[in-house]
Amino acid sequence: MKDEVFRNKVTWFSFGFSLLVIWVHSYNAELYLGKAPEMAAVYRLQHAVGDGLGQIAVPGFFMISGYLFYRDFTWEKLGEKWQRRIRSVLAPYILWNFLYYLGYVIGSRLPWIADVVGKGVIPFHLLAAVDAVINYTYNYVFWYLFQLILLILLVPVLYPLLRHRGSRAGLFLVLWWMIAAGKEIPLVNTDALLYYSAAASFALSGRKWVEEGQETDKGGNGRQRVLSGIVFIFGAVFLYRLGLRLAWVPCFVLCRLLAVAGLWITVPGRCLPAARGFMRHNFYLYGVHFAFVRFINKAGVRIFPAVPVVPMLLYLLMPVLVLMIAEMSGRILRRYMPVLWMLLNGGR
To answer: pLDDT tens digits for 288-340?
Structure first.
């Protein structure tokens, strides 16, 4: 796969995962009428989307991040890659967490907004700010970036294990055992480590399979890849339903791995049109969406407190509404505060 085709496909997938993340955080049935009988259908549908389809979004982000970091990786490139991630991951992580904290501090002191925030008066002092920045206290969705930062720092440990098949297999066996047994690694999420490492492994030894197949194989091999992807997707659906029945976490973890891999090899990169400009602002969209989702849902409750159709409409339209608001605010930032925009969008 030509590099521009590969990059375009990454943009499309990242954009799609961003929209799914918005749905994951848009549950609103209980905000309107709690667990009243008329909310039952709305509740089921929202959780079917968010707990089903939406759950591949963050694993997809981990897999894209792992693949891109280890693509063409050598020890000599470690310093360069770490330096780029300071600009694209660490700096925006600090800035977004501080801005969310500042927003909660200000919002908790404004009468109408304080009711929407619903957290009382947020303390404003140095220790609270440091806690908010380090522990993403007021920006819950950035647990993903916190994990990603840890995984990037683990390169000196991960790379020697992932570059050889034997040690790689041993690592995955240990991770699967830990997930099945409910064992935890301090600070690092075991399933996040598995998603990240799986994609990194393909970057180190399966790049041709990941990048070149759908660009060059237009005959039988191309159809075989698509068929394999469809099998992966059906396997993911089967594992998801099995996981619901058995309540066994490894089923869901493998389901997400297969779903992301299946979608990647099913969708031909050469058939995707060039990504639009707004689709390249996924980091900004990820950072800002949680504030907009909460505000829209809580404002909707105050305006339409007992209209059952409203929460479902808001839920279905939320990705579009948030994307429109994010794009409009992003245009303002790009025009009048370009330096701030670059920091908020990770230098992208």
So the answer is: 998 899 888 888 887 776 677 888 888 999 999 999 999 999 999 999 999 99
Mean pLDDT, the chain, as a whole number? 88
The vertex-222 CA angle with 218 and 228, nearest 5°, equals 170
Task: Name the H helices within 220-248.
Answer: 220-246
Evaluate if pTM is beyond 0.85. Answer: yes
Q: How many CA atoms lie within 13 A of 197 on its CB side?
A: 29
Helix, strand, coil abundance in the chain, percent, nearest 5: 80, 0, 20
Query: Rounded distance, CA 205 to CA 53, Å?
Result: 29
Residues 6+ apart with CB under 8 A from 264: 9, 13, 210, 229
Dist. CA 315–CA 32, nearest whole Å:
12
- Tokens read off for 194: 């598995």
Q: Is the dihedral of CA 332, 338, 343, 346 positive or negative?
A: positive
Count of residues making up the chain: 348
Which candidate, 4, 6, 26, places its Cα nearest to that of 211? 6
